[in-house]
Specification:
- The chain has one domain.
- With 198 residues, the protein is mostly helical.
- 79% of the residues lie in helices and 0% in strands.
Amino acid sequence: MSYDTLLALLAYAFVTSITPGPNNLMLLTSGVNFGFARTIPHMLGIGIGFVVLLLAVGLGLGAVLTAFPALHTGLKIAGGAYLLYLAWKIAMSRSIEGKGEAKSRPMTFLEAAAFQWVNPKAWVMAVTAMAVYTDPAAPLWSVFLIGLVFGIVNLPSVSTWAGFGMALRGFLSDPVRLKWFNIAMGVLLAATLWPMVK
């Protein structure tokens, strides 16, 4: 991979990792509701789960989904349903750190890692990265290099959203503000499905 291609890959990884999407909206909400420290497993799950997905796509999963469109459609439906479920849970959350809500907790590492497999934006990022940046002269090496670049760039990028959420905790300690913030985040999370269904 040339130096120019590597720079382009770094820029792509940064822009796609830090822009709004299901992961970042959930991290913003988690930062508000649970704080930064309790959101760390969620952030790590996103980073590691996405790199695993990325490597799987680069090592042939993308070709499998192309060969079996029904499998791809099934993943999209499962992902959409789960995303709507998460959006509903976020919209209905009413208190910081789940006070008075026995089941309120941040997303775990494994839940966040597994979510990447049904996250529409993660699939678009992974397929695009592998299609554009894989070097035909050294395909295996470039697949792992792409995974490494995303692994390095992703965690600092997504942690920005959790940090921003943490910074909003004081302002959103008012129950009415928190209620409307969580409703807005739930609606925005559901809206991230639009590119998948249009």
